[in-house]
Design a protein that fits this description.
The protein is of the alpha+beta class and about 350 residues long. The protein folds into 4 domains: about 1-35, no CATH class; about 35-120, Immunoglobulins (Immunoglobulin-like, Sandwich), CATH 2.60.40; about 135-260, Alpha Horseshoe (Serine Threonine Protein Phosphatase 5, Tetratricopeptide repeat), CATH 1.25.40.10; about 280-345, no CATH class. The chain contains 14 helices and 7 strands. The strands form 2 sheets. It has a 4-stranded antiparallel sheet, covered by helices on one side. Helix 6 packs parallel to helix 8 and helix 7 packs antiparallel against helix 8.
Amino acid sequence: MQQRWRRHLPHTLAGLVLLIGLGFPVSPSAQVREVRSVTGEVVTEEDAAISSGVTVAVETRDGQSWAVVHPDALGRFEVTNLYRQTYTLTVKAEGFYPTQLYLDLKDGMGTVAVRVVMHRAPRTKAAAPLPALTDLSAPKDARKVFQKAVQALHANQLDDAREKFQKAIAEYPCYARALTGLASIQVAAHDLDAAAANLHQAVRCDPGFPDACALLGKVLNNQKKFAESEEILKQGLRLSPDAWSLYDQLATAHYNEGQYAKAQEEWLRVLALDPAPPAEVHAKLAAVYIQGGARDKAYAEMQAYLRAEPSGRFASAFKAMMPRLAQSGAQVATSPQPEPPAIPNP
């Protein structure tokens, strides 16, 4: 049992545990580890039980799954056989934002009771996709050249792709997809002004094309034109309310303006729309939670990032920060905050 326990420990703390184990005698009674239980209820903000579709998952602090249970019709649940250590408890329910709690079971005895309040995610009507008018209106020759440009882009033949996108646009100046494709190459070349000009034209030609709005939001964020970015992204969301990439860039604009609560809300919308988003969304949420002092939630988001991208560009920074977060335990609100990681802007 002790060997299994040690395997579940974070790598950064394993040496410390071994040192303690070797430095002190262990009595026979201590070799049988005490276990504890957690009971709880899952309710809405109106204090109503969520009767179905709820999942409660318990993980160790190093991300190992420990238990998964489903509350009953009254929203009640119980998790037994938990060791005297720390865990994260994640609750998910359809139509609600996921909620995470930090469980510190090292001290005390008996059963711990928790109450999980779930916050409703905004209901958005799945808007019927607007006709891709510029695709349908583009002449046949322009569409053929565009397809060749896409093939060159996938083959990383950027000069060839640029030339063909430009040719397609010359054939049809309001070809929104070709304008966006050309802009993506210009962004890679750090020619942001040219990219922004082409993307503005794409949005004017096809306001319902979310790819153009999202890329333009990213370009404007990189140019620190956050108010202009917000305006474009909100315009895109009115026409494409399910496009998570628009919420992602809107959150980035809010974060860089210091509006952390708004940024958190928009990145949680991304998770509500796509439960398996790009790993960097978890990195961004971790940065927001650190700004707000929610160290347990920041830790959980760092875990999620490392599970998705164990060698990603934020992996080293998170691995260095996580032991300090874990050591703070329940005193997350009063402990000094580490420096937040630089916010990614994919």
